[in-house]
Design a protein that fits this description.
The protein is α/β, with parallel strands linked by helices. The chain contains seven helices and five strands; from the N terminus they run E-H-E-H-E-H-H-E-H-E-H-H. The radius of gyration is 16 Å and the shape is globular.
């Protein structure tokens, strides 16, 4: 199988890559994350995916898409925000996988116990049908802590929030509250 691996960040990629390699699956990474804010955070995550790709010797296609206005003006609920965020990325990855002749696609979002796993799976299945390419579903969550430790051991940047501007603000508020206590 030739797999396109959507990479939300380097730490969340470590464990899925180890599983994919154990299964002897050929893969290429794709960094498409226009949801990540601010721009400094976007660059840090992109740079660390590059560091990981060099350390573990695999290729990644990078998209510089950064949609600040779209995210700053989003007024939906958390559920709507996550659906919008996942759908945008998964749709792009599935489309790209079909265009480039990959057999399947997946996402490292499936490793995090903090993400909406069932929604990601449903969106992956929908995109697979839309573009005629398989969605490689794997519940990587049991390896989340192991992957995070390996990322730490590799000296990779490990972020403190999901990625979008709303989660960035929520994280900043948590820190502010913690400092007041």
């Amino acid at each position: 199988m030739n797999l396109l691996l959507h990479m939300c960040c380097a730490p969340c990629s470590v464990y899925p890559i180890s599983v994919i390699r154990e299964e002897k699956i050929d893969f290429k990474g794709i960094f498409f994350n226009p949801n990540i804010h601010p721009i400094e955070e976007f660059k840090l995550r992109k740079d660390n995916v590059n560091i990981l790709s060099e350390k573990l010797n695999f290729d990644v296609d990078y998209f510089e898409d950064f949609r600040q206005d779209e995210w700053e003006n989003f007024k939906g609920s958390e559920e709507q925000r996550c659906n919008f965020c996942y759908a945008m990325r998964i749709d792009k990855v599935a489309s790209y996988a079909a265009q480039k002749g990959f057999d399947a696609f997946t996402t490292t979002l499936l490793v995090s116990p903090y993400q909406k796993h069932d929604l990601i799976r449903a969106l992956g299945d929908t995109a697979a049908k839309k573009y005629g390419v398989n969605f490689y579903y794997k519940d990587f969550r049991h390896g989340f802590r192991q992957g995070q430790q390996q990322a730490k051991d590799l000296g990779l940047y490990r972020q403190k929030f999901c990625g979008c501007i709303a989660s960035y603000q929520e994280a900043a508020n948590r820190v502010k509250h913690k400092n007041k206590a």
